Amino acid sequence: MEQTKERVLNAIMARDTLVFIETVEELETLNDLKGIALGLEQSLISWNQVEGFKDETPEQGKKAMPPMNEPKSLPAMLTEIAEYAGNAIFVLHDVNLLMSDRIDPIDLASMIRNFKILKYQLKKTQKTVIIVDRGFHLPAELEDDFVFISRKRPDRATLMKILLDFVSTQHWEDRLSSDPKIRDLIVDASRGLTADQAKSSFVKAVINSGKLDEKAIKFLLDQKKQIIQRNSLLEYYDADTSIDSIGGLDILKDWLKKRKKAFTEEARAKALPEPKGMLVFGVPGGGKSLTAKAVSSMWQMPLLRFDIGRVFGQFVGQSESNMRDALNIAEAIAPCILWIDEMEKGFAGASGGHETTTRVLGNFLTWMQEKKSTVFVIATANDITKLPSEFIRKGRFDEMFFVSVPNMQERRKIFEIQLRKYKLNPENFNLQELSQNSNNFTGAEIEQAIIEAKFNAFDENREPTTKDIYNIMTAVSPIWRSFKATTETTEYKNIVSGAKLASPEDK
């Protein structure tokens, strides 16, 4: 990526002798560094603990001198760099693993000091040390000694170049559709992949359908879904939930419908600000998660579910790195929807001053404030009082919605939708009686009552009745009875007063 190459070059020219490049594209990054070394007429030397010292200088460049020793450990390589007589760019791999909390404290302290000494020794030379790794997990003592550069996944323009270069290299020009719109869709289907993953997916698409045309688009989307789901933080959802499958929440649904066209060129021409996100909170089972899935279908955008709880790693810096990686994927796929479910479970520790949680939250809030890509954030929460105040302050999201239990009219609609979902005819049930006798039941609880009634009837070789569903409901206590106490606290009421109701109040 040109921006990464420019930042690395600037760091070298400014004699920032220690640089860390965070990337999932090790090979592509190395190719970028080869170009920089060639332009600076310097050797490029890579090192890892398995292969040791390796000359990576391109053919036209100034080849590296043979190493004085064959360094197989990180301390030995640092000594080799310090004593190396020529000018060179040294690329070190897998350093995170060699400087983790699992290393003997004495050895770790020695390596940290070696890096600090090396930093100032190299300023008098034309040598630069660049660590390339997936995440910035260095010991805290070294964080300020390195220039940090994040190399993001390829953007749309880069992916188009990768596609055209790839088919040219393979002599597959006749297999790529000549229609510019189809080519754009192929690139869109590849967004979020690394360069290597994109090339691999193009090959598989050709093997699968013979060509890179409109038939290959669905295949590429499936490939992307499989690859992204290898990332434990993100889950890729298909847009298969209609907004009409949600009973109630009419005010929330109307707000979403009015912003459907807000991401178009027409909206930008009229200076409409692009929506950035919303926070939906309230009773569990009220339809918050279902709404996130329905927005994806309504707006025709990919939906990524972000599991905040899995962000937090055991090593220093790992949590922040995980957060950046997940957000980088979302930005690469943009336009998309990033759904963060039950947010309070991930960020509750920030309220108590937990250092790592506070830093990760700060990184996320900064990203939300500064992001330029079209990533619409849907954050959902049950007990919003567990979230830190800076997360829910006015202006952080475009809007905050409070989801209470459905009113009677909404419950009737929910019964209709759920009965049809389970292949039951609503006309065979007394919807008026059911909606009247399901006060304080959520949509999820109504659905569960129908499922339970259907199981009972199926066991008796008959169809369920209104009485079956009624009996199930009278035998259980709705979650609202316990959750209501939470909403009646002064803190919760204050938050609700600054939010919109997702549904009209029950008359």
Count of strand segments? 13
Question: What profile does the largest beta sheet have?
Answer: 7 strands, mixed
Strand order of the largest sheet: 7-9-10-11-8-12-13
The CATH topology of the largest domain is what?
Rossmann fold
Poorly predicted tracts of residues: none
Identify the CATH class of the largest domain: Alpha Beta
The number of helical runs is 21
Gross morphology is elongated
- By secondary-structure content and strand pairing, the structural class works out as alpha/beta
Supply the CATH superfamily name of the largest domain: P-loop containing nucleotide triphosphate hydrolases
By oligomeric state, this entry counts as single chain
The total number of structural domains is 4
How much strand content do the residues show? 5-15%
Rounded mean pLDDT score: 87
* Helix percent band: 40-55%
Cα radius of gyration in angstroms: 28 Å
CATH architecture of the largest domain: 3-Layer(aba) Sandwich
Distance separating the two termini:
58 Å
Question: What does this molecule look like?
Answer:
The protein is α/β, with parallel strands linked by helices. The chain folds into four domains: about 150 residues, Rossmann fold, CATH 3.40.50.300; about 80 residues; about 170 residues, Rossmann fold; about 70 residues, Helicase, Ruva Protein, domain 3, CATH 1.10.8. About 50% of the residues lie in helices and about 15% in strands. The strands form two sheets. Strands 7-9-10-11-8-12-13 form a seven-stranded mixed β-sheet. Strand 2 and strand 3 form a beta hairpin. Helix 6 crosses helix 7, helix 13 runs parallel beside helix 15 and helix 18 crosses helix 19. The longest helix has 17 residues. The radius of gyration is 28 Å and the shape is elongated. The N and C termini lie far apart (about 60 Å). The model has no long low-confidence stretch (mean pLDDT about 85).
